[in-house]
Amino acid sequence: MINMEFAEKFKEVASVLVEITPGGARYWITDTEKVTWQATSQLGYATTLEIGTKLLPNSAASQAIKNKKAMVQEITANGITAINAAIPIFEGDEVVGALCAAFPKAHALERAFPIFAPMIANMFPEGVFLWLSDTEKLIHRQGTKKYDLVEWQVGSNIAPVPEIVQCMREKRPINTEFYNEEYDIHVKLSVAPVFDERDKDKVIGTFGLSMPRAVAVRLQNMADNLTKELEQSAAVIQELAASASEISANQQQLHENIGNILTLSEEINNILAFIKQIADETKMLGLNAAIEAARAGDVGRGFGVVADEIRKLSDDSRETVSKIRELTDKIKAAVEEAKRNSDLTLGNSENQAAATEQVSASLTEIMTLAEKLAKISKRI
Q1: What is the pTM of this model?
Q2: Mean pLDDT across the stretch 157-181?
């Protein structure tokens, strides 16, 4: 319960209260019929009440005077919903008037928007456009120098934006990306529903942001190009790896063939040693035959000629064996040199095959990183 003395003291602070009340306010005092005093903020919330304005029968002031208790009403006019409150003023037991207050019904997000929106806008290097709407139109906006939807001003109809309509209808956040032909940029649009503070299931508007994605798109393109280049490189490396493996296998086979040639050279030398042994024995037999032919005189002369031919053939065979051995020794030396080179080549080819496989594995890992980079660019 308040009295006239309190009401008079309230006038002293009302001029301050109207200016610090978020969204503006109006305070007034009435007698039982009309307005006797008023104070209205400069925020343009409502027109000033004229002193002497008659009280409407259904107004909060009239109801407070009639029922002798505080009354609160929610009134919508000109698209603005306001809270009107009236407290009866007593002199003794008699109601002599009412102390009234009116202020716009504003969501906490709406009251805070002018404070946080400029700060958030400066956090986006590419710029951003923030907005707050009721169920029909834009009620707050915050653009930046780099990005500002100049055609979307306070009061603009939100119906043409399907994402906002969908957000309110489905009562859930909507995120989308599209190409804005007018600005020639890719844009990310995010919209979230704003619920009534008293009724958590009632959507009273939306809060959203629109931001360019030039850097993210460039990053995505770079990631895509990198992935393509890596895929091509990986294909080439895989071919090289296959070739290196084939070369390594061929080199291994060549290494075995050279080893077989060395074995054959040893066998040839063994055969030559056996031939030399036969030639030596043949020469010895020829010599014995010549001696026996000489003992036989004229009868053994023909046999002596044959023995001489046998010894000559033996000598020729020994010379041929020596030449063949010399050639086989040279072949053996050349093959052994080839074997040493083959060992080195085999080792190098095996290392090359292993290195190629390692490079291929590294490219696969880089491709995985490129795919992760592409996913990150989509989240920016």
Answers
A1: 0.45
A2: 90
